[in-house]
User: Which sequence fits this backbone?
């Protein structure tokens, strides 16, 4: 078993689907952070068999939790203070997301005016359907990890 | 400031007020002929649409106002690469209200976010065409007296027809409206519309042949079935006559049924039907002017005397 150094103050993104941590890393722009970030791939998990984990030193404001909730709302966020878990946060599907995914509809106004924010709205929570704010084109959850 | 981007931007109460106003305009045109004196509408048409543009212009002229604008992207600054946001900021300095048609879906919403004047979506790609829906609602209400308690057959291309989608979404807000959806399988309604009908417990059925359901209909809403929408020639030839309305099919309909069509028609309604008192599609075009007059007054805050 590989040991990764203990985190004193920061947060842990736990229960990431195995193999998807780099995608989360890129999508949340963690490469731009100055602080210590650890990526653990294929860790053993009772619940999932295998999982990925990302540990980040610093405050929760370093990541866009709406974007994270959109990508996979089953990820748990553990806030660490003085080396202990101070709080466990569960993610929800966000009501809207900004600049996380791009509208694929070639007839959408965002296809010709690139300075517009790419905004998607949750229109059907039960079916987890997001639609482009401008053209209402559907974006389905199945393809989100590949967004 | 209120805009009209989608047919659902108005509540049913607001819609009722608007349609009451449109009715009053249709009966007392002189009363409204100077209501917009000194006001200007900008018709920004980034793609050609003679009918809708002229309907807006006629509406404003009937109200005593005046009109400026362009009728294709080539004759606008869009050809030089100007964004919709920049264009509308400038136009806001020239006009009091704007009707915009744009080939890109969501363009009127982008305009509304930066506009200093009310924006009316006059059609954005295959997305929304709310003033057509207002026209359809006014036509049904004027001819039947109410938007409740009737069976409507929507016939033709139900997959790509934005007028059909908007009309369904608007009519499900009323009581006891039953939908009969008549189309080839290739051109049936999209899943999300079917889900909306199911989620709201709205009675509907989907059929292929118009003749089979004619006797049930109170309103028949015709749309064009374009040959290029079919996957193969055989299917087109087999089905094309199902969707052409002629005297024979009209004979199967109720005496107080009405036929609507957003126009332009090509051959889906035979010209022999035009003289039938139940053919309401040219009246519908007239109602389109009244409802746009009512809309202009409402968005400018000039609807109350």
Assistant:
């Amino acid at each position: 078993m590989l040991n990764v150094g203990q985190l004193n103050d920061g947060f842990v993104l736990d229960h990431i689907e195995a193999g998807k941590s780099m995608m989360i890393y890129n999508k949340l722009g963690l490469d731009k952070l100055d602080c210590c970030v650890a990526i653990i791939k294929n860790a053993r998990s009772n619940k999932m068999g295998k999982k990925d984990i990302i540990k980040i030193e610093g405050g929760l404001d370093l990541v866009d939790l709406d974007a994270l909730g959109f990508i996979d709302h089953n990820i748990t966020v553990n806030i660490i203070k003085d080396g202990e878990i101070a709080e466990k946060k569960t993610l929800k599907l966000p009501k809207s997301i900004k600049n996380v995914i791009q509208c694929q509809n070639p007839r959408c106004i965002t296809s010709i005016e690139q300075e517009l924010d790419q905004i998607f709205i949750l229109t059907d929570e039960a079916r987890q359907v997001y639609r482009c704010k401008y053209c209402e084109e559907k974006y389905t959850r199945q393809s989100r990890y590949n967004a | 400031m209120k805009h009209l981007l989608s047919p659902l931007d108005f509540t049913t109460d607001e819609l009722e007020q608007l349609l009451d106003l449109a009715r009053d305009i249709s009966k007392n045109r002189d009363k409204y002929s100077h209501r917009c004196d000194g006001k200007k509408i900008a018709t920004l048409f980034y793609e050609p649409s003679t009918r809708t543009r002229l309907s807006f212009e006629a509406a404003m002229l009937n109200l005593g106002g005046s009109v400026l604008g362009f009728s294709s992207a080539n004759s606008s600054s869009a050809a030089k690469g100007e964004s919709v946001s920049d264009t509308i900021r400038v136009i806001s300095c020239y006009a009091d209200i704007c009707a915009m048609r744009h080939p890109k879906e969501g363009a009127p919403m982008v305009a509304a976010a930066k506009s200093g004047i009310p924006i009316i979506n006059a059609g954005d790609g295959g997305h929304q065409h709310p003033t057509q829906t207002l026209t359809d609602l006014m036509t049904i209400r004027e001819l039947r007296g109410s938007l409740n308690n009737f069976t409507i057959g929507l016939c033709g291309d139900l997959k790509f027809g934005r007028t059909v989608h908007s009309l369904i979404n608007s009519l499900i807000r009323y009581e006891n409206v039953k939908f009969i959806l008549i189309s080839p399988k290739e051109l049936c309604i999209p899943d999300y519309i079917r889900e909306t009908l199911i989620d709201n417990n709205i009675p509907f059925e989907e059929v292929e042949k118009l003749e089979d359901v004619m006797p049930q209909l109170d309103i028949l809403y015709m749309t064009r079935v374009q040959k290029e929408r079919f996957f193969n020639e055989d299917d087109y030839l087999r089905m094309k006559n199902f969707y052409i309305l002629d005297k024979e099919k009209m004979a199967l309909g109720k005496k107080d049924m009405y036929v609507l069509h957003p126009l332009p028609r090509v051959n889906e309604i035979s010209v022999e039907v035009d003289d039938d008192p139940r053919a309401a599609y040219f009246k519908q075009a007239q109602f389109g002017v009244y409802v746009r007059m009512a809309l202009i007054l409402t968005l400018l805050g000039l609807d109350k005397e």
Notes: Chain B touches chain A through 17 residues (CB under 8 Å). Chain B is about 35% helix and 15% strand. The beta strands of chain B are 40-45, 66-70, 97-102, 119-124, 150-155, 177-182, 204-207, 219-222, 258-260. The longest strand of chain B covers residues 40-45.
